[in-house]
Automatic annotation (TrEMBL):
Initiates the restart of stalled replication forks, which reloads the replicative helicase on sites other than the origin of replication. Recognizes and binds to abandoned replication forks and remodels them to uncover a helicase loading site. Promotes assembly of the primosome at these replication forks. Belongs to the helicase family. PriA subfamily. Zn(2+) 2 binds at residues 533, 536, 551, 554. Residues 559-712 form the Helicase C-terminal domain. The keyword Zinc applies. It is an enzyme of class 5 (isomerase). SMART domains: DEXDc, HELICc. InterPro entries: DEAD/DEAH_box_helicase_dom (IPR011545), Helicase_ATP-bd (IPR014001), Helicase_C-like (IPR001650), P-loop_NTPase (IPR027417), PriA (IPR005259), PriA_3primeBD (IPR041222), PriA_3primeBD_sf (IPR042115), PriA_C (IPR041236). It catalyses: Couples ATP hydrolysis with the unwinding of duplex DNA by translocating in the 3'-5' direction; ATP + H2O = ADP + phosphate + H(+). Residues 292-461 form the Helicase ATP-binding domain. Binds 2 zinc ions per subunit. This is Replication restart protein PriA.
Length: 817
């Protein structure tokens, strides 16, 4: 009987591939194991086994696999099911999901490597031109791959050149299939087996009496073992006994000591006994109870608790319940909020049961966490991670917490799969039959909508912990301040007064300015008016090149006005101001204050973000200027004042979610003020202080905000009332792109009843020499999403059969936000 395997490869092709295997291999292989397989002419890929069967492929001859790479599956059936869902729902391939889900070290590399023989004596004048090119390239680069050599000599078949160079002993080849991952190994020592009894030990020490250094080491080891249960590393022993490597080595050779290795990640530590879980107050207890009741009904549950109400402590209580049942727990956070603050807090309670998983971790660290979760090792019982931790090999997941569930960064933008981690987490919880809690002070409109429609359970905390008052919010009319000359630079007198007072009291200040440079909007400097699209209710975007204002949803456009449509003033500005400028002004206005800044530019590198947070926490800074990074669940003790430099730049963002996001951001950043005893103060500067959203922020009126937003979403057919899919077309040729996008959207309009907007250029319409154009499809809730997607895919097939369009990339973003 013939045997075959279906394999998924980490490439964006729809299908899986069938390879042939021997009967022996068929006995060993299980879905979820990796194999290396040949692909195309010369490539070798790592693939994942989906299925073992006896049906030969119809249209091609199955190749044999190269090698089996695992002894047991590294991916389990629930994961495969989950990946299938992600691929289906977000309209991408299983291979793309796999590439995003597996740490890259698991995707084995195979390439022929060419290295320079550094020992060779080379007479360059004897080299032919093409030989010299390769030789020269190898002076700059230690290793070349075959296809790189092709590019250098501009020829496809390079093997003859390489053969000549090999003959001349100038290069050598290295065929390498290697695992990139190597666990960190640490050397430990213990007393040899024969010396474990007291008697034996006594005799040993006697026999060592003439070797004082050696007996010193043995005694030290004994003492160290008495002090703690932890394994003793060779370095620790050397340090403690004050002896050299040679002495320890001699003892190991005599077999008095035994050396052994433990992978670094396996070392366990004792829990800190001092920090016990806090007792919840009555409001937290009530919320916990409501959550538990809702969990009993297997409902996704939303916890809405004002800032500093102690949501984290409620999570902690829940986590410890599931921990006791021996279940795994996943704590999802937006990438940006993965601060040491929260991790330290949880580690105090749960010690080394916690693993952290996110993109700033290196390959090794990710593989360690993966394997720990796979083997259900105690130290990975709780995983705190950003969105990609969803894809870890959980076996027995009991609870998922999605903290700051409203955060837009839970949605992956690029590359595929363009998934929303919150939504994918809900599906994952379903597959595991585990409970899932979404938490936020400012829930997303979607989640609250689901609560309203009975789909989700609900719990609420309306008070800050310790009955600290919500901060006192004050709106400052900046237009008025300018008119009355009560402003310096971008600071109103009111804000300056408050900063002064906080500084005098030795309290800290946060200044918030969210400037996102890539979507310029036109703003009247006199009245703050910004032109809106009449079809879409979003702010128009300024396109400098064409001197136009455009709606990037529907394509409505108008020439750049010479004066403001609202007040007639000719002073229109498109630049706005950013955090850097605010920092500069603060330094001039308050030369004695210590000022820091936190934005994308100052937080590159693995620990930069934590450093700024810690330094602010330790009160090494008085004033911290920053973007939305400041808003994420940070718990500072000494911040009494939060200043919002310009609320309008948020409100006028050209996006149907601008109002929702403004409410969330302002509420979150305000929530950093006055978290301990004294009531905090928030000053919000705006050209348009009567805007309903600003009123709702200052009164904490989430429900009115929600009602108004839902009304608008109904009017303009946006989520959560309708579903949307954004389709992006990408090509280097402007005309081809235009035609292709027209063709596609035309086909959509004929074939499909929903609303099709565009094609339209985004604010940045050309990236890396590729032009972009978007089409937005709005799908009525009553229509089947599945059918619509199948229709779109069918249109894509016909599209791809037109040779001119084949090179146009089509990118789907389902539930685009
Ligand atoms: N039951 C409790 N006992 C003692 N201290 C508590 C308790 N609950 C919360 N706190 C303290 O109150 C502060 C605010 O709590 P926490 O950070 O959990 O609030 P939060 O709701 O998560 O806030 P945010 O949404 O702003 O992140 C913290 O310093 C926390 O240690
Ligand atoms: Zn429009």
């Amino acid at each position: 009987m013939e045997y075959f395997v279906n394999i998924v490869l980490p490439i964006p092709l729809e299908r899986h591939f069938t390879y042939s295997i021997t009967p022996d291999e068929a006995k060993i292989l299980v879905p979820g194991m990796r194999v290396s397989v040949p692909f195309g002419k010369s490539k070798i890929y790592t693939g994942l086994v989906l299925q073992i069967h006896n049906i030969p492929p119809e249209v091609y001859e199955a190749k044999e696999i190269d090698q089996i790479l695992d002894e047991f599956p590294i991916v389990n059936p629930i994961q495969l099911q989950h990946w299938e869902w992600v691929a289906n729902y977000y309209m991408c391939t299983l291979g793309e999901v796999m590439r995003s889900a597996l740490p890259s070290a698991f995707l084995l590399e195979s390439e022929t490597l060419i290295l320079r023989n550094t020992d060779a004596d080379v007479d360059e004048s004897q080299l032919k031109d093409d030989e010299f090119l390769v030789f020269e390239a190898l002076q700059h680069q230690a290793v070349l791959k075959v296809h790189e050599v092709s590019a250098i000599v501009e020829r496809k078949n390079v093997l003859p050149i390489l053969n000549r160079l090999l003959d001349k002993n100038i290069i050598y080849l290295k065929e390498e299939v290697y695992e990139q991952y190597k666990p960190k190994l640490v050397k430990y020592v213990k007393l040899g087996k024969e010396y474990l009894s007291d008697d034996a030990l006594e005799t040993l020490l006697e026999s060592l009496s003439r070797a004082p250094k050696q007996s010193q080491v043995v005694l030290s080891l004994f003492q160290l073992q008495g002090n703690s249960q932890k394994p003793i590393s060779i370095t620790d022993l050397e340090r403690y006994s004050n002896s050299s490597k040679a002495v320890v080595k001699a003892l190991i050779e005599k077999e008095i000591l035994e050396e052994y290795h433990i992978r670094k990640d396996r070392v366990t530590y004792d829990l800190d006994e001092n920090s016990s879980i806090k007792n919840l107050n009555e409001y937290q207890l009530k919320a916990l109870k409501d959550i538990q009741v809702s969990f009993k009904e297997d409902k996704v549950t939303l916890l809405k608790g004002v800032t500093s109400s102690g949501k984290t402590e409620v999570y902690v209580k829940l986590i410890s319940e599931y921990l006791e049942q021996g279940k795994q727990i996943l704590y999802l956070l937006p990438e940006i909020a993965l601060t040491t603050q929260l991790i330290t807090r949880l580690q105090e309670y749960f010690g080394e049961k916690i693993s952290v998983f996110h993109s700033k971790y290196n390959i090794q660290e990710r593989v360690e966490v993966w394997n720990n979760v796979l083997k259900k090792v105690g130290k990975a019982q709780i995983v705190i991670g950003a969105r990609s931790s969803l894809f870890l090999p959980f076996k027995d997941l009991g609870l998922i917490i999605v903290d700051e569930e409203h955060e837009g960064s839970f949605k992956q933008f690029d590359p595929a799969p363009r998934y929303h981690a919150r939504d994918a987490a809900i599906v994952l919880a379903n597959l595991h039959r585990s409970n899932i809690l979404l938490g936020s002070a400012t829930p997303s409109i979607e989640s609250y909508y689901n609560v309203h429609h009975g789909k989700y359970g609900f719990a609420e905390i309306n008070r800050r912990f310790g009955n600290v008052l919500m901060p006192d919010m004050e709106l400052v009319d900046f237009k008025e301040a300018l008119r009355k000359r009560k402003a310096k630079g971008h600071f109103s007198e009111r804000l300056l007064e408050e900063i002064e007072e906080s500084l005098v009291n030795g309290e800290q200040i946060i200044l918030f300015q969210n400037r996102r440079g890539f979507a310029p909007v036109l703003e009247c400097l006199t009245c703050g008016h910004t032109p809106q699209c009449s079809n879409c209710d979003v702010t128009l975007t300024y396109h400098q090149y064409k001197k136009q204002l455009r709606c990037h949803y529907c394509g409505y456009h108008t020439a750049l006005p010479e004066s403001c449509a609202a007040c007639g003033s000719p002073d229109l500005d498109t630049k706005g101001f950013g955090t850097e400028q605010v920092e500069e002004e603060v330094r001039t206005l308050f030369p004695d204050a210590k000022v820091g800044r936190m934005d994308l530019d100052t937080t590159r590198g693995k620990h930069a973000y934590e450093k700024i947070i810690t330094s602010f926490e330790q009160q090494e800074m008085d004033i911290l200027v920053g973007t939305q990074m400041l808003t994420k669940g940070l718990d500072f003790r000494n911040v009494s004042l939060v200043g919002v430099m310009n609320a309008d730049s948020l409100l006028n963002f050209p996006d149907y979610r601008a109002h929702e996001k403004t409410y969330q951001m302002l509420t979150q950043v305000s929530g950093r003020a006055g978290r301990t005893q004294k009531r905090g103060k928030v000053i919000i500067q705006s050209y348009n202080p009567y805007h309903q959203i600003l009123k709702q922020v200052t009164t904490g009126d989430y429900d009115t905000m929600y009602a108004e937003q839902i009304y608008e979403r109904e009017q303009y057919k946006y989520p959560p009332i309708n579903r949307i899919i954004k389709i992006t077309f990408k090509h280097k040729n402007y005309n081809t792109l235009n035609e292709a996008a027209e063709w596609f959207s035309g086909a959509l309009r004929t074939n499909f009843g929903g609303t099709v907007l565009g094609p339209e250029f985004p604010p940045i319409s050309r990236i890396r020499n590729q032009y972009l154009k978007n089409v937005l499809v709005k799908i009525d809730k009553r229509e089947s999403l599945g059918r619509t997607k199948r229709n779109i895919k069918r249109i894509e097939k016909s599209f791809n059969s037109i040779s001119m369009y084949r090179s146009v990339r089509v990118i789907y973003n389902v539930d685009h936000i």
